[in-house]
UniProtKB/TrEMBL annotation:
Domain spans labelled Helicase ATP-binding: 286-452
Names of required cofactors: Zn(2+)
Positions with a binding annotation for Zn(2+) 1: 519, 522, 559, 562
Gene Ontology annotations of biological process type: DNA recombination; DNA replication initiation; DNA replication, synthesis of primer; double-strand break repair
The protein, known as: Replication restart protein PriA
Amino acid sequence: MIANIIVDVPSRQTDRPFDYKVPKSLQPWIELGSRVGVPFGPRVLQGVVVGLAEESEYDHSKLKPIKELLDPEPPLLPDLIELSKWLSEKYCCSRIAALQIMLPSALKGKEVKYIALSGAEQEQAYANSAWLQALRQEDGAIKLEKLMAMFPEEHRSIKQALQQGLLTLSGKVKDRTGIKQVRMVLPPADPEAAREQLAALKKQARKQYEVLSYLLEHPEPIALAQLVAKLNTSSSVVQGLAGKELVRIEDVEQKRDPYRHRQFEPSSPLPLTELQRHVYERIVKEMERKSGQTMLLHGVTGSGKTEVYLQSIAQCLDSNRQAIVLVPEISLTPQMVERFKSRFGDAVAVMHSRLSDGERYDEWRKIRHGQARVVVGARSAIFAPFSSIGLIIIDEEHESSYKQDETPKYHARDVAVRRAKQHGAVVLLGSATPSLETFVAASRIPKGAAEAPLLSMPERVAGQAMPTVHIIDMRQELTQGNRSMFSSALYEALKQRLERQEQTVLLLNRRGYSTFVMCRSCGYTASCPHCDISLTYHQKTRLLRCHYCGHAEQEPKQCPQCESEHIRFFGTGTQKVEEELAKLFPGIRVIRMDVDTTTEKNAHEKLLKTFSERKADVLLGTQMVAKGLDFPYVTLVGVIAADTTLNLPDFRAAERTFQLLTQVAGRAGRHHLQGEVMIQTYNPEHYAVQAAAQHHYEQFIQQELELRMGMMYPPYCRLICITMSAERLDQLAEVSTRFVNELKEIAQYEGVLVPLQSRMARAMEILGPVASPLARIKDRYRYQCVIKYRGSIDASTLVERAMEPFVAGKTSKQVLFSVDVDPQVIV
Ligand code: ADP
Ligand code: ZN
Ligand code: ZN
């Protein structure tokens, strides 16, 4: 037996499967997706089995054997193995990088693992198995490697016991990420018999009597520690009862459920509105067809999309398939999680970046072992190891956080579409402001279908009006002598909410790095000595920091260039708004939510909870406050400056502004109280601002599509951005020019190097090399080459081919290449 293995070596020459022999004792254990240790050169490295074969095209006698198997069950399923191939080809990354993002980080370590008993003794099914005897003799735990070698014939029952949680894997990682065990007390197996003993115990062993009668009254398993504390007794008392076989004590694996402290009220499906029903029925029909179709649910904020998700998922589970729900990281609030948990209870696994490695691993195992059938998570939950997916939902599909900005730079939406094809699942993209790419794609009628996969819900559920939006021209405020960051209209509106005890959400549409330092005499701005970017002022530490490389320096007292003392901090950070609010409205209770106040674990949740309990008047924050929140007493939403995203040097700037304004406006007046929105801006005529104020998506995209067409940007073409970086500028210039020439030659040879405006079905333009917008990071200069193309061109492969001589040769150490396929931002 031969295994094809992708080995964990970060080098392009070794980015292909290698053949290894599978030793006889490991043969029953090795499967597609198994993680193994293999000899590679002088070392033993980790690898993943991506193929199994009888034969190898290489000389068998020269093949080395697999040294060890790292997990008794393969952590990756065959469909994920196949997906990794697609990922690496599409996003120009190594196969091992593609495989590794699918594994929970707790599995990446190489700790010695043990298999341990955690209940199998009690199971009749395993009573006669040899491995159980062996485990008992070894105090309940045997090294994984050893157990596998001892019982190759029993791999099925061992794997089964692992899945049932009767055996567990544990290791040195135990405390950090391994499995937690709790000692549980189980109530009497035969309550009648136990009851008969009560009278006798009452006389002889009063304490045992108390415990037993408690357990007879409360016949649920309870943790030993909890029982002891509750009855104010000792564990030896309980053990005494166990000795008499009146109760049982067992070590049970405890999954660290991050939501264990919370109670979820069960909720039942709401009767759907006409619009919801129509949409729901189309989704269900498509699921039944197993077409692998992608659909867009375009529904205004508050149109009841989430309820449609929930009922579609219920349908999906009923047909014995699983569902993946992706939401943007910052919307993974307790509010969102609660809606899924209360509908589907323990069938829901939750995955987000604030979980510890151990918690993440537990959630992952619930999915892998079929205990969870729905996962709600951020981007990477798209790789959940489900075996039969029926539905993949991506909420707020336009969010840029679905794109990973490190290698592999994948977009969860595109991965979803691909995975859905493998499973015949439906992808449901939901948004009030769909990305242009998605909207255009969903407007086309697919071959053989009667309708376009575009579902829309243009009204709010209970017919609540969309909030009234006022656009406030800040230039006029200035001419009227108002230099404050609040217009008089916003000031009045805020004052009114305070009087009425209603709540306000204030959005400051910019992040920390807008607080830069500038000299008013000479115009000097403090910038990073290693990167071409302004430094950011952090009030707490009084330091200037670089957001790219972490460089920090003291705040300047005078201008380093002209020695003037008129050097000051510009821009309105959230802190400044907070200060101003306190000045204008003494006693106002403000919750500030930004990167500084949400670094601690669960900080985000705590702040929102306080706000929902109406213990604050204003929720002030960055983008974080715009998404998915639903508070009945919020009747005012204020946007302090709409312009900051408008002015970004990015062809999506208008789209992002429109989306953000629409999102945040949707937070107001979601329930019985009517909402009002105030957008302050220096560009009141801008079509993105105007369309958002009128809640008019179509109007916005018509204008935006025309502009994109004129400049040839997505959705009329696709982009790839290749960034090259080096310490020496001359070398960078030389290599990047050669690379671009190489790429042009290849494109020319393929007959696709023609202007996009031409009538050819396939066209490609290659721009650059030019200095990147961020021309230097961490002392490395950066050049970029942008490819625009349309038609069925496998552009990733062309890029890969053009890069080959550069990344394999000597220059590879000095000039680094980084490829971003379908970039969300070009930096
Ligand atoms: P969206 O996700 O589109 O912003 P939600 O799903 O959050 O909208 O729905 C908005 C509000 O309407 C929620 O409070 C939700 O409970 C309620 N809702 C949704 N569907 C129904 C329905 N069919 N009947 C009554 N209330 C509903
Ligand atoms: Zn100066
Ligand atoms: Zn820097």
